[in-house]
Amino acid sequence: MNIDGRNHRTIWIDDDGWSVHVIDQRKLPFSLETSRLTTLVDACDAIRSMVVRGAPLIGITAAYGLCLALRVDSSDESLMHAYQTLLAARPTAINLKWALDEIVRVTRSVDPKRRSHAAYAHAALLVERDVSTNRAIGDHGLPIIERLAAQKRSAPVNILTHCNAGWLGCVDWGTALAPVYKAHDKGIPVHVFVSETRPRNQGGALTAYELGAHGVAHSLIADSAAAHFMQRRAIDLCLVGADRATAGGSVVNKIGTYGKALAARHNQIPFYVALPASTIDWTLLNGEEIPIEERDSMELTHIAVRTTNGPVLTIQIAAPGSAALNPAFDLTPADLITGLITERGIAPATQDGLSSLFRRRPIETCIKDLQLVHR
Ligand code: MRU
Predict the structure, then answer these.
(1) 335: closest CA among 256, 246, 254?
(2) Residue 139: active-site member
């Protein structure tokens, strides 16, 4: 998407043909800087320290992490070591495992001499697929905004989003923000309520940044203000992304999503989740067993600020010595979700809804197969 009228992606291969550039999201919104990844360790660190974040982008970075490892050592042992190391980088977003499995699937049976080449070729395919998938999510989500726009005549459609599910969390377009960009680019008046997303502030730092750079009208709100604006009928639609969805339609997304879904239900506001198929964990039905990442308590007790004369400082904002708990994600049960916007269309958040779009076998069969594999 656009920054200062120039089209950008979040990840690309250097002119050398092998090293990987990413936008360093820790530096946003204060400066647009890139980071060059040249080793498996670089890729793991980039995921772990949130240089890159957002479920689809974590997956693509991990895919390139395998490429970087295979470039140095293309043996089976190296492939498996890199797989396990990258898989452990962050626990919740299933796209990480999905992308690693994709690279392993296409390289496992390839002669080790050609493995690195095959891995890079497949990673490039995953990159392009991420872009086309998110574009399709945008196309399928657009009519929801168009219908609301028709009801509102020329007043803007007010959309609440949480965390960053825009192009910065993917390769391009975004998941939840893809329909918003499509609507904006089509001239439909939209206004986005961006919840700040404490403690990492992905809303204020990333979503507000990318919407502003693309020219989409938006207002930053405190996380705690979302229910108030819903009650005041200021919000027409909630649109969020996901880090892992279950075959039954429940969704794990950034902490605070569940509370927003409850408030939306109480106020009869449609609550949609946009996600690619690579975010669906077909082995789970309800999601209680999804590992919820527990992050450093310093994310809560400290905050990065830019002083008026320039430098960015990290300052303490909580009482010294207080314990702090920092779960990064929460589970929104399927019955609070109006629909799942995918690259294949919109599904009700149910097992039947998802399998009708993706023609998967019933979950009971998948779980039986897994038990056989693990026996
Ligand atoms: O901890 P993060 O920033 O990686 O969490 C990201 C989210 O929760 C996004 O909402 C999710 O990945 C949506 S898809 C871009």
Answers:
(1) 246
(2) no
CA–CA distance, 286 with 248 (Å, rounded to integer): 6
Q: In what order do the strands lie in the sheet with 11-13?
A: 11-13, 20-23, 34-37
Q: Two tokens at 312?
A: 């960015």
- Spacing of C-alpha 150 from chain mean position: 29
CA distances in angstroms from 31 to 9, 19, 23, 345, 360, listed in the order given: 16, 22, 10, 36, 44
Q: Is 256 in the pocket of ligand 1 (CB under 6 A)?
A: no
Tokens of 41: 């360790």
Pocket lining: 260 vs ligand 1, CB cutoff 6 Å: no
Nearest residue (CA) to ligand 1, atom 6: 54
Position 374 scores a pLDDT of 44
| 330, 256 Cβ separation under 8 angstroms | yes
Nearest to 250 by CA among 354, 349, 372: 349
Provide mean pLDDT across the span 20-28. 97
Please return the burial class of 6, using the count of CB atoms within 10 Å of its CB with bins 0-12, 13-18 and 19+.
exposed
Bridge pairing between strands 345-347 and 339-342: antiparallel
Whether residue 373 has pLDDT greater than 70: no
CB of residue 207 inside a 6 A radius of ligand 1: no
Q: Chain-centre distance of CA 233, in angstroms? A: 27
The angle, 0 to 180 degrees and rounded to 10, between the axes of the packed helices 112-151 and 95-107 is 140
Asked whether the predicted pLDDT for residue 163 surpasses 80, the reply is yes
Place of tokens 């291969």: 13
pLDDT at 366 over 60: no
Q: Is 76 helix (H, G, I), strand (E, B) or coil?
A: helix
Annotated catalytic residue within 243, 330, 352, 369: 243
**pTM for this entry:** 0.94
Write out pLDDT tens, residues 39-75.
Answer: 999 999 999 999 999 999 999 999 999 999 999 999 9
- 345-372: average pLDDT: 76
Q: Treating both helix axes as pointing N-terminal to C-terminal, what angle do 55-72 and 95-107 enclose, rounded to 10 degrees? A: 30
Expressed in angstroms and rounded, the spacing between residue 204 Cα and the centre of ligand 1 is: 14
Q: Say whether pLDDT at 372 is over 60.
A: no
